[in-house]
Amino acid sequence: MAARKPKLLEGQALVDYAARLLSGRAYTLGEMREKLRRKAQNAADVPAAIARLKELGYLDDERFAKEYAALRRDNEGVGKIRVIRTLRARRVAPTVAEKAAEEAYRGSDETALIESWLDRKYRGKNLGEFLSVEKNLASAFRRLRAAGFSASNSIRALRRHARAAEETLEALENEASGEEAG
Prior knowledge:
The chain is mainly alpha-helical. 74% of the residues lie in helices and 0% in strands. It has ten helices and no strands.
């Protein structure tokens, strides 16, 4: 069976296609430009379609970046670095991405976000005991970095949990040695 060729569009049909796409989910300007470029019969129609979408208020990278950063902070609890990285991958201008992330994370405590993230991701485990194993500690650090948290705050949070495990182990050890002596 032969592959079906996509129907190429021009003019208003291209704008209608873009509006249909945008009714499903939000796209950045760069993502939409690429989608329209693939679907356009004439490449010269793409800038006009993009301009029309901007005029209608359907495409606005600044608004998209602000909303995206706030949602990622509130719903997924990821760090600022991850939000910037994702926005840049979605073809948002670097300055727009950084500005949106700065605004979204202004006033939020990264340490509290890290603690919340650790509680959520390791909810079935005793974090102190779990992090006392070196490979688990390294894995947790890598996961925190991938989630967009700074190295210094990640290390501080992990050190707090690992220290709590050490103190618990020392208390148990002292308790056990006291029982052996008595």
